[in-house]
Amino acid sequence: MISSSRIITLIVASIVVTVAGCVSLETALPPPGRWVTQVLPEVDPDLPALERGRSLVIQHCGRCHAVEPIARYSLQQWRKIVPDMAAESYLNAAQTQEVLAYILTTRDALDRGGKPQADTR
Known about the structure:
Structural class: mainly alpha
Number of helices: 6
Order of helices and strands: HHHHHH
């Protein structure tokens, strides 16, 4: 039989691991804003469309699993992941394009040294 102190230790360890693995939504999925346009001036991103893409990621991807931080995968990996996951989430073609645009644009901006900032639109 497991002692009560052992059970408490396991519970505390589980909580620490869970909390340590948490990433804020703003860190995992930075809101698009002026920081993106500053880093990618040649792209001239459609910020409202990028925001819709971000909202779709939050609504649909978060239903089945924790939202993956954009920085976790490369641009090439995201190009493979998004279409597969969009099909699993029953996103239509337009929604899939908005999700892909948000993820790829944000990842590119992060790769170029962009620093997400609160309310920079």
